[in-house]
Amino acid sequence: MADAKDDGVVAEAQIAQPLGRWPILSYGVGHMLNDITSACWFTYLLLFLQQIGLAPRDAAIVMLSGQVADGLMTILAGEMIDRFGRFKLWHIGGSVLVGVSFSSVFGGCLLCTILGTDSYLVRTVGYSIFAAVFNIGWAATQVSHMSMVNCMTLNPTSRLALASCRNASTMVANLGLYAIALAVFAVIKAKECSDIVLQYRWIAYLSIFIGCCFLVVFHIGTKEPTLKSESNCKKKARISWGYWFRKTLYYQVALLYMLARLITNVSQSLIAFYVTRDLRMNEYSKAIIPAIIFCCSFVVSIVLQEIKWNSRRLKSLLTVGATLWVISGVAVFVLPSQMHNLMYPLAMVIGAANALVMVTTVGLESALVGEDLNGCAFVYGSLSFLDKISCGIALFVLESYEDTMSCGETRGLNTVSRYGTGLIPSCLAVLSLVVTSTLRLQDAAPRAAALEAPLLV
């Protein structure tokens, strides 16, 4: 009996050992296809649809249809993964849907081609259908990838390193997208509607190709997680939804994650409008400014990978990130077009704030799950559901006022893009600060070590 107990202690210590550099890096690039297509989706979809003739409200309907499908799929994927596992199978299936549907949205109206008509209604319906398919695949890939973190290791520092590496890869994907966009915009000049479609078609095809290259690296370098199914890892029955709903921390983390995603996604979706219409910057600014934001996010994310995390640092850095967003959001809202060059340093601050907010909120998700591995997919799925639905509704409401708030030759402070890029994220950051102050986190056992090897060395 004593030997069995000792074996259990040894086994538990082994699975809590820190991960090495390669497992973390190969896992981190597994979301690159999702990330590079998502960057294009949130930065250029509304702009693309309006440039080819859809009204702002109908463009928002296309976005909303995708977000609703995404939100519902996160719940389904979370439940199915908790029941049957097979993380990598869900990941590859979702990736296939992402690649096919994304090229159909930005490659032109496929439904219009099939039906032989280019009517306004058919275009709206066609783009909405493929937006929904894209987001279904995106959700399956996202939930499976995020759920793997807690089933790859019990070491909290390694879990944060996985989340931070994933976030850093997101920044690389975004930078890659904006580099592609900048090159395409420079080579293909948009003189008419067909040129605009051609621009985004090339952006879509190149994005999918690059994302698939990293997808291969992920599937080669990352093994199917077995932690939750091993007999020496406290195997339990699948955790019911009610278990999480009875936890106060679940609601706190859910609200913080939703606010973080609203801050980043809403501002990202409207920044192209803001820099070109409100600040009257040149055409290249809609690629350069987002690129600066994500470049700074990437640098901060890399630095965060080297930190040995505890609850105090998690709360402190989340507070710092939210505070930076409060300051930069207000500055963006009041920035006059004559001083548009100040947008460059503001973009750097926004980038750092985004990294701090996203890495810490994903870390809070991991802290919420802890060692309750048989319910981890539901947690990630349900929180993503709140994120997708809230983002879709927020963008739909904002775009519904686009005609009345953006008309006229002179654009003052009362524009949708100014509110969505500056003031609204700033207010959401204030709410994040309030919720963060109520968090009560417990640190993991002291046996949890730092990374096996720093990623920067």
UniProtKB/TrEMBL annotation:
<dbReference type="InterPro" id="IPR036259">
    <property type="entry name" value="MFS_trans_sf"/>
</dbReference>
<keyword id="KW-0812">Transmembrane</keyword>
<feature type="transmembrane region" description="Helical">
    <location>
        <begin position="377"/>
        <end position="398"/>
    </location>
</feature>
<feature type="transmembrane region" description="Helical">
    <location>
        <begin position="168"/>
        <end position="188"/>
    </location>
</feature>
<feature type="transmembrane region" description="Helical">
    <location>
        <begin position="316"/>
        <end position="335"/>
    </location>
</feature>
<feature type="transmembrane region" description="Helical">
    <location>
        <begin position="200"/>
        <end position="221"/>
    </location>
</feature>
<comment type="similarity">
    <text>Belongs to the major facilitator superfamily.</text>
</comment>
<keyword id="KW-0472">Membrane</keyword>
<keyword id="KW-1133">Transmembrane helix</keyword>
<feature type="transmembrane region" description="Helical">
    <location>
        <begin position="127"/>
        <end position="148"/>
    </location>
</feature>
<feature type="transmembrane region" description="Helical">
    <location>
        <begin position="89"/>
        <end position="115"/>
    </location>
</feature>
<feature type="transmembrane region" description="Helical">
    <location>
        <begin position="249"/>
        <end position="275"/>
    </location>
</feature>
<feature type="transmembrane region" description="Helical">
    <location>
        <begin position="419"/>
        <end position="439"/>
    </location>
</feature>
<dbReference type="GO" id="GO:0008643">
    <property type="term" value="P:carbohydrate transport"/>
</dbReference>
<dbReference type="Pfam" id="PF13347">
    <property type="entry name" value="MFS_2"/>
</dbReference>
<dbReference type="GO" id="GO:0005886">
    <property type="term" value="C:plasma membrane"/>
</dbReference>
<dbReference type="GO" id="GO:0015293">
    <property type="term" value="F:symporter activity"/>
</dbReference>
<feature type="transmembrane region" description="Helical">
    <location>
        <begin position="342"/>
        <end position="365"/>
    </location>
</feature>
<feature type="transmembrane region" description="Helical">
    <location>
        <begin position="287"/>
        <end position="304"/>
    </location>
</feature>
<protein>
    <recommendedName>
        <fullName>Major facilitator superfamily (MFS) profile domain-containing protein</fullName>
    </recommendedName>
</protein>
<dbReference type="InterPro" id="IPR039672">
    <property type="entry name" value="MFS_2"/>
</dbReference>
